[in-house]
Amino acid sequence: MDAAGGGLIQAASGAALASSAFLAWAARGRSARVFGPSVWRGPRDSRAVALTFDDGPSERTPEILEVLARYGVRATFFPCGANVERLPAEARAAVRGGHEIGNHGYSHALFCFRSRRFIEEDLRRAQQTILDHTGARPVWFRAPFGVRWFGVARAQRRLGLTGVMWTAIGYDWKLRAGAVVGRLTAGVSNGSILCLHDGRELRVRPDVGVTVEAVRRLVPMLLDRGYRFETVSQLLCQTI
After folding, report:
1. What does pTM read for this prediction?
2. Which of 54, 122, 172, 198 is flagged as catalytic?
């Protein structure tokens, strides 16, 4: 192979790597908007944060609701439609507590390489399930695993949803409570959206004890630092 041929191969390889890197960022980057309108933080001029929970409801969601009620804190929950169907009373309790409900898909499927039809039907089924069981119609969507894909933008548009990522995530499915709190407090600032999980995908009776303990520590700690907790809608009303 001559030098020219080798150069073409190298250029093609470099372009493929660059394309793959861009696609990975578009799918998972917290600030990416390639696959649909999305936000990942609120305004920096207000000492407010949004506490969010994915994958619920679970059998231990009421414990988290009790902590939030004790401190008068409102959060935003992104439940899976299948979990709402399984535990409707827990989902309704979140609404009665004044919390906001978002859409986290029905089946907690990883959307990459899924068809546009599958993505829209999964979001639509979650939207209808949440509405039927709680009376709340979500306006925010958080993709399972934080992965967006082709077809998400169309589904969001048809269902009236805006994507939400996060400013800091606690990794509460694999770290101890102290480490979770440490990650979130290190990453918090005005306008932050904080991500925790009151469920573990579609598991029945998942072990979310770390999350419960992290919330017990985190909420009073941030209140003592002067932060105000708002729902995602409250936090982002000036930025969307």
Report:
1. 0.91
2. 54
The partner residues of 103 in beta bridges, in order of sequence, read: 141
Strand ranges, E, within 30-187: 38-39, 48-54, 76-78, 100-101, 140-141, 162-164, 168-169
Q: Which two tokens stand for residue 7?
A: 């150069």
Catalytic site residue 224? no
54 is catalytic: yes
Please list, residue by residue across 61-83, b when 16 or more beta carbons sit within 10 angstroms of its beta carbon and e when fewer do.
Answer: bbbbbebbeeeebbbbbbbbbbb
Residue with tokens 């995530």: 169
Q: What is the mean pLDDT of each run of 10 residues along the chain (240 residues)?
A: 48 59 93 95 96 98 98 98 98 98 98 96 98 98 97 98 98 98 97 98 97 98 98 80
Task: Please state whether the peptide bond connecting residue 88 to the residue before it is cis, i.e. omega within 30 degrees of 0.
Answer: no
Helix, strand, or coil (residue 120): helix
Alpha helices, H only, 79-140: 81-86, 88-96, 116-134
Q: Is the separation of the CB atoms in 104 and 145 below 8 Å?
A: no
Instruction: Report the alpha-carbon distance of residue 130 to residue 90 in Å, rounded.
Output: 12
Of the candidates 108, 133, 197, 198, the residue annotated as catalytic is 197
- How many residues are given for the chain? 240
The CA distance from 180 to 212, in Å, is 11
Whether 215 contacts 64, CB under 8 Å: yes
Query: Is 141:102 a contact under the CB 8 Å cutoff?
Result: yes
